[in-house]
């Protein structure tokens, strides 16, 4: 659920017009497209990873081989550790870019969504660990 909040808030409200003179959409995080792209990418990877491992957990009892069960558990553990690292990087990157952002009138409308993305990326570190 946290991954949906992160990539959903970035997609929906973190691309804004700087002012009425510039019609193109800019990323609210210091106008750095990489920050928005990274947050969206990690959120989508986490979402699909959760779906995959949910299905693996549903069929875990039907796995007859002990080696295959061990591989499934180790894959889940490794994926969780990897995503905890990705969320840590996302939190640091988004927080750093948000700190450098100067809020103009156009950017202030997406400020709550940016703060939500940063907050839920922090909570995602804890959840994945």
**Which spans have pLDDT < 50 for at least 5 consecutive residues?**
none
Structure classification:
mainly alpha
**Gap between N and C termini:** 16 Å
Order of helices and strands: HEEHHHH
Please give the count of helices. Answer: 5
Q: Judging from the principal axes of the Cα atoms, what is the shape?
A: elongated
Number of domains: 1
Average pLDDT for all residues: 91
Quaternary structure classification: single chain
Give the helix level as a range of percent: over 70%
Work out the radius of gyration.
18 Å
Task: Please describe what this structure looks like.
This protein has 129 residues and is mainly α. Helices cover 73% and strands 9% of the residues. It has five helices and two strands, in the order H-E-E-H-H-H-H. Strands 1-2 form a two-stranded antiparallel ribbon. The protein starts with a helix and ends with a helix. The model has no long low-confidence stretch (mean pLDDT 91).
């Amino acid at each position: 659920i946290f991954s949906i909040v992160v990539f959903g808030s970035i997609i929906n409200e973190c691309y804004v017009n700087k002012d009425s003179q510039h019609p193109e959409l800019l990323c609210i995080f210091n106008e750095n497209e990489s920050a928005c792209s990274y947050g969206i990418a990690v959120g989508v990877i986490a979402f699909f990873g959760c779906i995959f491992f949910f299905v693996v957990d549903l069929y875990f009892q039907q796995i007859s081989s002990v080696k295959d069960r061990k591989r499934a558990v180790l894959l889940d553990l490794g994926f969780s550790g990897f995503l905890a690292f990705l969320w840590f990087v996302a939190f640091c990157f988004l927080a750093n870019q948000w700190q450098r952002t100067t809020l103009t009138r156009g950017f202030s409308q997406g400020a709550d969504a940016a703060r939500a993305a940063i907050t839920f990326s922090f909570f995602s570190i804890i959840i994945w660990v």
